[in-house]
Amino acid sequence: MRTTTNRSAKLDMTIPGKAEGMSGEQNPVFGQLKVFSGNANPSLAAEVCKHLGIPLGKANVFKFSNDNTFVQFLENIRQMDVFLIQPMSTPVNDNLMELWIMIDAARRASAGRITAVIPYYAYGRTDKKDQPRVPITGRLVADFISVAGADRVLAIDLHAGQIQGFFNIPMDELPAIPLFARRVKEMNLTDIVVTATDMGSAKRARELADLLHTPIAIIDKQRVDNDDNAKAVNLVGNVEGKEAVIIEDEIGTGGTVIEAAKTLREHGAKKIYCFATHAVLCADAPERLSNSGIDRIVVTNSLPVEGPKLIDNIEVLSVAPLIGDAIHRIHNSLSIGAMFQGAAMDEIYGASRGLGGPSN
């Protein structure tokens, strides 16, 4: 595997409006900023804290021999502004339980405000009743988070936008599209066509295409019942002789993007790249993607990407600056929307470049 490292760029960025020595910064209403992590992605939490210039909060989060989860904060958080970083990574249900118990523990420790930072929101596909007698688990998870005691939620690229409406507390969704647009520009691709893997991702493809000033293509995908595998049945748009950029919110088994790549090749695409926010990469997905013929797969570290997931054609971008700036803005009652305007967006997303993978 080819690996490049560019950690300095993402950690040296100055957050707009951030004073030196932010560890002593206090919100006049909620008190000092504190960031803690469960076991889902502690390396991301550490990067976020380094970016903010504060230490990662100390806590015990583990399982007893009887499989019960235990949480204890090892420092005072009374009336402080507490952020709990915990993506719903594998094992999803264990990490969900950790999050709920951490929220409850923080509430019982009299935290001033509790924000659940969930870079990857699992159960996002179960956002509606699309079959008889099935649950809307995405809503159920949102209810549990609220009942546990969270005051607000911060996430990245939800599978469906309506999940925001499942919460009766403030919910901020951060997009990775500008981060991907910047990386595409750095790769100096020519004659690009942004490709949506189905009608559901057409809006996401249009947003990326607007930033890159390129046309889009849409693949008509068919998924049967609860099968994880999907089949592409048609292509709308011209990809012949072009460099196709597939855009997805997540890669699970890899079936959707592999089938999309096959369709694009059949229609004459010169090169194929895939950009996806969340690298779930379950089952044999890494092996299948490694042999898929996709020239490069660019993902983020919203989920841990390590071990067998680090295949030769994968590249990982860091979302730590994105999350760090959002935390800073929430703590200081600043606009989240301002992150995605002009120079602020260029600075934030430019600092997210490169954790590993091909350098060009």
Structure description:
The chain has 360 residues and is of the alpha/beta class. It has two domains: 186 residues, Rossmann fold (3-Layer(aba) Sandwich), CATH 3.40.50.2020; 141 residues, Rossmann fold (3-Layer(aba) Sandwich). It is built from ten helices and 15 strands. The strands form three sheets. Strands 11-10-9-12-13-14-15 form a seven-stranded mixed beta sheet, sandwiched between helices. It has a six-stranded mixed beta sheet with strand order 1-2-5-6-7-8, sandwiched between helices. Strands 3-4 form a two-stranded antiparallel sheet. Helix 2 packs across helix 9, helix 3 packs parallel to helix 4 and helix 5 packs across helix 6. The longest helix is centred in the N-terminal third of the chain and has 17 residues. The protein is globular.
Oligomer: single chain
Largest sheet: 7 strands, mixed
Structural class: alpha/beta
Number of strands: 15
Helix content: 25-40%
- The CATH topology assignment of the largest domain is Rossmann fold
Average pLDDT across residues? 89
The CATH class of the largest domain, by name, is Alpha Beta
Globular, elongated, flat, extended or rod-shaped: what is the shape?
Answer: globular
Neighbour order of strands in the largest sheet:
11-10-9-12-13-14-15
N-to-C series of helices and strands: HEEHEEEHEHEEHEHEEEHEHEEHH
Radius of gyration of CA atoms, rounded to a whole number: 20 Å
Low-confidence stretches: 1-21
Counted by DSSP, the helix tally is: 10
- Tally of distinct domains: 2
Second rung of CATH, namely the architecture of the largest domain: 3-Layer(aba) Sandwich
